[in-house]
Amino acid sequence: xxxxxxxxxxxxxxxxxxxxxxxxxxxxxxxxxxxxxxxxxxxxxxxxxxxxxxxxxxxxxxxxxxxxxxxxxxxxxxxxxxxxx
Length: 85
Description:
There is one protein chain. The protein is 41% helix and 22% strand. It is α+β, with helices and mostly antiparallel strands. A two-stranded parallel ribbon has the order 1-2. The longest helix has 22 residues, at 30-51. It starts with a strand and ends with a helix.
């Protein structure tokens, strides 16, 4: 039986940095967001290859800056990669 796994996905982008926020986050161009999410997908692939046999993802939490400031299709690509892996 596979062990349950919870995943936290950090999306460090926001429209503007709030004074009270302690997260690693900042505004970023669309190109920077795209590059970050491309590397995030690569990291998901790499980590999944190491643990997919042993774990099943039960919970995904997306946090950081304001994840909804990133285009929805980018976030969908990340979640699709988690599902595939």
